[in-house]
Each structure stands twice: as C-alpha cells, then as structure tokens.
Amino acid sequence: MSDTSAFDELPGELLMWVLIVSELLVFGAGLAVFLSLRIGDPEGFLAAQNELNRTAAAVNTAVLVSSGFLAAMALWWRENSQRLRARLALLGAALLGVVFMVIKVAEYVEKAQAGINWETHPFFTFYYMLTGFHAAHVAAGILLLLLVAWRDDTRNIEAGAMFWHMVDLVWVILFPVVYLLQ
Q1: CA 85, CA 80: separation in Å to the nearest integer?
Q2: CA 159, CA 151: separation in Å to the nearest integer?
Q3: Model pLDDT, residue 152
Q4: What distance lies between CA 90 and its chain's CA centroid?
Q5: Which of 7, 54, 121, 164 is most buried by a 10 A CB count?
C-alpha cells in the first residue's frame, strides 16, 4: 500500500484545485438556473438568443482555445529550458485574452445600442451575469498570465495555466449553452 493520496497525484497545488472547483461550481449553478428558466419560456429564450452575435462568440471560442494552447506550451517550453519561448507564449496567451475582451465589449455595446440590457428578458439577465462573470475571470487571468510571464518559474506557470484552462473550460461550456442550444 502506498503512502500517497489522490491529492498527491494531482498536478499543481491543492489550493489552485480548490479555487478551480469552487469557480466551476458557481458557473454550474448559474447555468443550472439559466437552463431551468429556459424550460419555462422556450420561445422567449429562443427569441432573445437570436439577438446574440454567434459569429463573435465563435471567434472568441477560437481565441480562447488558442490562448490555452499557448499557456500549455509555455509550461512545456519552461520545463525544457526555453525560457524566452515560454515568456512569449504567456504574453501571446494574455494578448489573446485581450482580444477576447475587445470582442466581448463590442458585443455588449452592440446589445446596448439595440436597447437590450439585463432587464429586457430573463435570458439577458443570465447572459450578462454569466458572460460578465466570465469576462471578469478573463481579466484576472490576463493579469495572472502577465505576472507569471514576469515571475516565470515552472510552478508559477503551471498555476497560471491551470487558471487559464479553467477560464477556457467555462467558455467552452457557456458558448454552446448560451449561444447555440435551442
């Protein structure tokens, strides 16, 4: 019998996993309420959903997945003594996070110009809540990636990449549920 526990087998730090799991639970709860409200008003949710810019959201999906790849490569490069490449990959991932935010803000502006806000329909209440909370995580992740690029030891990069992958995962779930599921 081994003296190691399942927690010892996890990559990264336990507290980062606690943060990630807690964030996923918060997003999961928001999505559960969103989907339960959708059951009561499928026509209203569909009409509201048709006001969204699915193309911008699809581009944002590609942007975040690409940035996640760069964050993963940064760790690999740093572990393989390619410090400059690792730092550039982290900067590239952060820059793609900024691109995501620019597209998201443009989408919010487009909705505001059309007179759509969080009070327009329950769909938009949760649209703004879920995507806004996610955008806050993107902003925090950008700062974290920049900090990790500056303090670029492997443990820091691993923690930053883990957080960034959680941000990616949440978007990969939000995108189809909010923008595509009909």
Answers
A1: 10
A2: 12
A3: 86
A4: 16
A5: 164
